[in-house]
Amino acid sequence: MSASLSSSTYPTLQSKLSVAPMMDRTDRHCRYFLRKVSARTLLYTEMVTSQAILHGDLEKLLGFTPEEGPLVLQLGGDDPAKLAQCTRIAAEFGYDEINLNVGCPSARVQSGNFGACLMMEPERVADCVAAMRSASDLPVTVKHRIGVDEQDSYEQMARFVSIVAAAGCQRFTVHARKAWLKGLSPKENRDVPPLRYADVYRLKQEFPALVIEINGGILTLDETLAHLEQVDAVMIGRAATDNPYLFAEADQRIFGASEPVRSRHEIVESMYPYIDHWTSRGWKLHGLMRPMLQLFAGQPGSRVWKRTLTENASKPGAGVEVMQMALAQVPLVEG
């Protein structure tokens, strides 16, 4: 495995591009794979609740390999003391930054009084941020929505940001859609409410000292570069797993790196030692290769790549040889 990236080399608060925290998607294996695609894009964990951390298996919930860095832990919760305790634990694990989820609209999150519903309690969010900041030297950031239910005016969002910023939060990742807490599923909340990019641009104009990151509906690096003319950073969500190779040129186009872009074949081959490492310890290939299924999206051979992996990855003893067999059926021509 390669040497880890230093957070001092790529300070997280300055990152221009990130992959969104996504439940059941951005686990440690997905992050390791994405790091092979882009060395500099900021990565996030799935959201982990404070209750889970305080009462669960810490290695299972928080464990990661240094190669995944720079890496942000996203926390869910609304109790300042518990979130502070989780922040201390995260610092001991070696995370680069802590992010508080104030954007998820799922019923489970609402029942725990965190996620998007917290936008209606900016003072509580500010208390959480202050407690988390006091618990360690790690930066504490917030991911939130444009608004919630009928509280969706720009002025209400600006008030939320102002109150939370006063508690010491310097970076705000804004999903440029409002959230409907009742009537829409989490999936529908990602698609149905209209995008309001102009409100995020205005937020940056009126809070120039803050780092403002835009999220929602962004699918390409061309779109990313256009948004970067208005805000400090861009977060890409589902496109990162639907078409992960879109990040292949991110280091060069977004961060100005000079290293050559890796081909899809090179990325797969670079994963072999990692696959060997985990399958030799009892992990099933199915879970390890899942983030890689869409690597050849839109390319000749994509269908046979996915079919070969899905048909063979769950077989007893499946390992790197399955990856090699699938890759051998994909043309070397890249497009």
From TrEMBL:
It comes from the Bacteria. Its cofactor is FMN. GO terms for molecular function: flavin adenine dinucleotide binding; FMN binding; tRNA binding; tRNA-dihydrouridine20 synthase activity. The active site is at 104 (proton donor). Its EC number is 1.3.1.91. HAMAP family: DusA_subfam. This is tRNA-dihydrouridine(20/20a) synthase. It comes from Romeriopsis navalis LEGE 11480.
